[in-house]
Amino acid sequence: xxxxxxxxxxxxxxxxxxxxxxxxxxxxxxxxxxxxxxxxxxxxxxxxxxxxxxxxxxxxxxxxxxxxxxxxxxxxxxxxxxxxxxxxxxxxxxxxxxxxxxxxxxxxxxxxxxxxxxxxxxxxxxxxxxxxxxxxxxxxxxxxxxxxxxxxxxxxxxxxxxxxxxxxxxxxxxxxxxxxxxxxxxxxxxxxxxxxxxxxxxxxxxxxxxxxxxxxxxxxxxxxxxxxxxxxxxxxxxxxxxxxxxxxxxxxxxxxxxxxxxxxxxxxxxxxxxxxxxxxxxxxxxxxxxxxxxxxxxxxxxxxxxxxxxxxxxxxxxxxxxxxxxxxxxxxxxxxxxxxxxxxxxxxxxxxxxxxxxxxxxxxxxxxxxxxxxxxxxxxxxxxxxxxxxxxxxx
Length: 395
Ligand SMILES: *Cc1c(COP(=O)(O)O)cnc(C)c1O
Known about the structure:
Elements (H helix, E strand, L loop, with lengths): L1 H11 L11 E5 L2 E4 L4 E4 L2 H4 L8 H13 L10 H14 L3 E5 L2 H20 L5 E5 L8 H5 L4 H4 L9 E4 L4 H5 L6 E7 L1 E2 L5 E2 L2 H14 L2 E5 L23 E4 L10 E5 L1 H4 L16 H16 L2 H22 L3 E7 L2 E6 L4 H9 L2 E2 L1 E2 L4 E4 L7 H16 L1
Parallel strand pairs: 3-15, 5-6, 5-7, 7-10, 10-11
Antiparallel strand pairs: 1-2, 2-3, 4-12, 8-9, 11-12, 13-14, 14-17, 16-17
Helix pairs in contact: 3-11, 4-11, 12-14, 13-14
């Protein structure tokens, strides 16, 4: 039954993903169920999206109530959920101005435009440069792809948007080597996700901040994957107090509703995008904004970030034990509930085996297993995950 539908999908969908051969049908807490009713423990969370787990009643009820009221207007009018969501996201991020998008890539596009406009207003020139990082991932649209530090993703789609340079995360000299009088922004993920779970170090971020302050370069932090509590603070930069000039957020922000946002300080807000410069039909519509509002409310009500900080050391400990037990695991990297195990070979087989045993895992690059579970996981869930994973590695 499931196979028939999968065969159908393979005829109809553009083959841009090598999909695992299951149809996911429903979710409950940290578990997913396929169309045959088989249960899976989910350590992927829709790629760091389902922070509160599946079928969270208060969240679902809030969405249903908004559907019955008003789903969409236009950004030519105000709507109450968006007014509220803007205020809430300001208060959790400490940023001053927000623009809502429908996805992460669109948040990056907006961030790039804001940075370019800021520089343009300073000198009237259009030749400004952005420094991004190797191993970075910022999305698949042309602007976001242009700042993504993986040549394989960019190759066939040249030319990219111009004036992008690349440096290495946690290597301040490599960044300095790319800076010149045309540099308008430095863009990085506070914790690199797709590229292999590389956290930016505190000292590196602080040096970047100092350089940006000195030269009036904008620091743009991409918090699309590492933000919304995953790293033990609403936004990962808050752990170090290194505040960006522009920040992007998405993934967990909408709890499964496709939303994103880019935010900026008042300094950038007052000297960049103005009426007519940027827009979106759906971004911040009442339905999407209601999702953001309820997510933030539930984070507060259920003390989600406290939970991340209390459970993450347990996950780290268990992953470290696993790394000590198996020679094929070379290292663990990560922050909070965003962790990676580095193997000495591709992890595709392990992921396939885990799936058969009812555990959903994903990779981040060929050799790295990535752990981005719902933020509400418990020690029991972690124990169960580790025991299945150990079996898969042993095989
Ligand atoms: C997923 C991701 C994006 C792109 O977000 P989409 O919603 O897929 O467009 C950008 N940056 C980072 C760090 C991401 O993890």
